[in-house]
Design a protein that fits this description.
Elements (H helix, E strand, L loop, with lengths): L2 E4 L7 E5 L6 E3 L5 E3 L5 E6 L10 E12 L4 E6 L6 E8 L4 E5 L13 E2 L8 E7 L3 E6 L2 E7 L19 E5 L1 E12 L5
Antiparallel strand pairs: 1-15, 2-5, 3-4, 4-15, 5-14, 6-11, 6-15, 7-8, 7-14, 8-9, 9-10, 11-12, 12-13
Length: about 190
């Protein structure tokens, strides 16, 4: 069964977190969530994460960098538990680093998931993240961009302000972003 996390009508299920110098988060008339530019991280935590699957699920959403040159989609998500989380970073470290933070102590700019990718501003990007006990995979605009084997590896968020945003959140860094159509769907792991 699919769970709609953000339907474009209300931000009631999301809590704004100020990590110090955060921008504001607004619901726009056209049904998008707008995360405004701050001095550091701007973001919201999903309040009902404890009611969602912690593994064997997919999160889908659409994200767009409106202004700025850093990550426009930091999707922090549970990996088997509410305290065991990681962050999908789209467009970090100056605008192009894409990957998962962190695996075995290495963040997205340092581990095997990290790569450089041009993310065009003012263009919607379709994102799909799949989490199973053994793998984290990500698709952007229907192209598989991350396929990470996590069996036997330590998965965790990067130390620092992002720790305030577990277990499930949407964040940006010094960047304005728009988010819409956020959903979670349980999946059956294929052997």
């Amino acid at each position: 069964r699919e769970f709609v996390l953000f339907d474009g009508k209300s931000l009631d299920d999301w809590q704004e977190v100020d990590a110090g110098g955060s921008g504001t988060v607004e619901l726009m008339e056209d049904g998008q969530m707008r995360l405004g530019t701050g001095e550091s991280i701007t973001g919201v935590i999903y309040k009902k994460a404890d009611k969602l699957p912690l593994t064997n699920y997919e999160i889908t959403l659409e994200a767009m960098r409106v202004d700025g040159s850093d990550f426009f989609c930091g999707l922090t998500f549970p990996v088997g538990g509410l305290k065991t989380c990681a962050t999908l970073v789209l467009g970090g470290w100056g605008g192009s680093v894409t990957g998962i933070s962190s695996i075995d102590g290495a963040d997205a700019s340092e581990n095997s998931t990290g790569h450089y990718r041009k993310w065009e501003n003012n263009k919607w990007h379709r994102v799909r993240l799949r989490v199973t006990p053994e793998n984290i995979s990500v698709w952007a605009n229907d192209e598989r961009i991350i396929d990470a084997d996590i069996k036997g590896k330590k998965v965790h968020v990067r130390p620092g302000p992002i720790e305030e945003y577990v277990p499930l959140s949407l964040t940006t860094y010094q960047t304005t972003a728009a988010i819409r159509n956020v959903k979670v769907t349980p999946v059956t792991e294929k052997k």
